[in-house]
Design goal:
about 0% strand
Length: about 170
């Protein structure tokens, strides 16, 4: 499909994020199950609920524009999820696996932060105030999750993973 203007780009990017969120909805339960650290497990479970809300927000924004959120596959998220699956297969030590899961999750969060920042800006430019507020809410939640993962990594998980190195 040939895109003509910023609105087309905005719709295309929202569809990409919708696909990304739905891929995460499938991946997060596996990550939560694999995590040995209770704080990390809880973070994944909480983020799963938020991710479902993120997908619903995109559905609402697209509905308000008379568009469908479906029809695109986010190849970047597909690759990021695949990297997370590889971590599950490559690391047996529970503490090291938790550290690997955080690394994979933060790559996902940073991808989403970049994507939501772009679509929020497009919404503002296009005068889509309601959508911009919803997208900012999602952007804030993604940033909060990223900070939570950093805190878990720096306060305990990475330190526990390093203990076998002595």
């Amino acid at each position: 499909m040939q895109h003509e203007d910023l609105r087309d780009l905005y719709i295309d990017q929202l569809k990409d994020l919708y696909s990304a969120e739905n891929q995460l909805i499938k991946a997060l339960p596996k990550m939560a199950k694999a995590a040995s650290n209770e704080g990390l497990k809880s973070a994944f479970e909480t983020h799963l609920e938020e991710t479902r809300e993120h997908a619903q927000r995109i559905e609402q924004i697209m509905k308000d524009m008379g568009e469908s959120p479906k029809g695109k596959k986010c190849k970047a998220m597909e690759g990021l999820v695949e990297e997370g699956k590889e971590a599950l297969e490559e690391f047996e030590d529970p503490e090291v696996l938790d550290a690997a899961l955080i690394a994979a999750s933060q790559r996902v969060e940073h991808y989403e932060i970049a994507g939501y920042g772009c679509v929020r800006t497009y919404a503002n430019i296009l005068g889509e105030e309601k959508a911009a507020k919803l997208l900012q809410q999602t952007l804030d939640e993604e940033g909060k999750t990223d900070k939570l993962l950093t805190g878990l990594a720096e306060s305990s998980i990475n330190l526990e993973a390093a203990q076998g190195q002595a």
